[in-house]
Request: fold
Amino acid sequence: MPAPEQRDEVEMLATMLLIRRFEERASQQYQAQKIGGFCHLYIGQEAVVTGAVAATRPDDYLITAYRDHAHALARGTSADACMAELFGKATGCSRGLGGSMHYFDKANHMYGGHAIVGAHVPLAAGMAFAAKYRKEDRVTLCFFGDGAINQGGFHEALNLAGLFKLPVIFICENNFFAMGTSVKRSTSLEHIVDRAEGYDMRGEIVDGMNFREVRDKLSEIIASIRKDPHPAFVEARTYRYRGHSMSDPASYRTKEELEKYRLDDPITRLRAQLTREGKLTNEQFDKMDKRAKEEAMASVKFAEESPEPPLDELYDYTYANGVEAGVSPAKKTASGKKA
Amino acid sequence: MREITYRQALNEALAEEIERDPNVFLMGEEVAEYNGAYKVSQGLLDRFGAERIIDTPISENGFAGLGIGAAMVGLRPVVEFMTFSFSLVAFDQIVNNAPNMLTMSGGQFNIPITFRGPNGPAHQLGATHSHATECLFANVPGLKICTPATPRDAKGLLKTAVRDNNPVLVLECELFYSHKGMVDDEGVDLLIPLGEAEIKRAGSDVTIICYAQTVPMALAAAETLAGEKINAEVLDLRSIKPLDLPAILRSVAKTHRVVIAEQDRPFCGVGAEISYRIQKEIFDELDAPIMRVAQEDVPMPYNERLEQAVLPNAEKIVAAAKKIC
Reply:
């Protein structure tokens, strides 16, 4: 497995571009009514998840909330599988049964995609608990928004993680708005990171628009956790350019504020850093961007041409089979189909 | 076979499953150092150590979720609620996370977790501590629910629940922990399938469908009815979900009369669903309307006389049976 510092930055920039172009396409397809339900875009926040993933091993656990397209893409889920999921197709990363808010990819250690605010934070504690129970040195990355930090499940999970010294990093993607309500109007603390202190864990603030800062801080924390399991808390200050969801015009923010952050764009920033250091030419960047656009475009075609999940599989995922030996499997008897 | 208590039977089931599978662990409030609020986990900490018998803070939403997360990555947690009345604090985890994960992930993540603990009214605990939660959870696809009424069923159902690859709720009866009953010898790997009802008393004139706390009530009622030349069959569901509909239909086709004795509330209660299924499947076999004996539809009063008035009992079951026999 490559050491974190050897993860290629140009490659991670390509991932950021793919996330951006994928979501621009998703937005377009949503407006064309090809995508149902809710759809929350990550555009503007790309440096947070790519920076974090650059600091991890592929077998570290990753779990997030409903703004999850980027997390799957960063973990290696294909744009095809991601777009097909938005289209509700059988080739989607959750077979079209999850939708935008419930991306899962077991092979790439992406554990969802969870849409009840704060409810997945205890799950992250459980994944970290399992790693410690089995004496593995895996780290769990748990992403959530600033809206989650006032939910009971969040506090209970942080207490358990602090109490049991679980190898988990709670990463608050602070984009300053919980849906349409600003942090100032929802949270008793000025600095979200101060929540960590109440649970006896290390807390750090990072510039979530800066890929390198996120990666370097996470690398340092992860190295310390692998040596001796403990939880940590990172507040990544970032900004989403779009509304909370596709149906939100974000009229609670000013144009000036948005422009300020756009000038600090995480993709532009990493590109400039690499260009300045002679690691990336304009031609290379243009080529990468072109590839990202083509991949996103191709994913739409793939999703459109993919089959729907078959109706006769409707009951197949309600209960798992494979009950251990000696017990008769009760598949479908509880579903109402047979019983 | 030997005689042990319901509590001992559960304790044996836990010990055997923790011994058998290194992925099984027990977690909950006071399960370790205190040996369990109702002593179900007595001795397990000494035997298996603090890595596998884990005390939690009073934090149901947190530790229920922790268990589900651990199950996502391959462990098989047994999570004890001190009472299922407290499971309501973790309702979102039990209803939204555990049973939905398999579908939401397109079949990638099943959740092999057991939630267990006492359920249903005990004695003068008041409205907040007397919930019979089976009807709340039975409404949720993806959950399995069993309701052991005897020591043997308690042991066999709990062991099966731990081995099931789905979230299973084992709803125990606080008032039964000291009840004794015959259980297979130690060393017998006693597994009772989920979704298999059992005839606890054979009869021909009326079927009394019951589970959990209403099983002894139904057996007592059957004795009284026998004195009045009514031969009642007592069918213990043992599992609410999966529901053993074939066993219900077989019994009703034999007796043509039904009393459903349930420990939950009447509105959208377990008996409502069973009544519907019976009339839908074998309407012509019924010689009388289906009767239900459930709690009264009120929050549980503390006062002992009023509490008794709310609860089902043998006399109410006898009265219901006599109306249709």
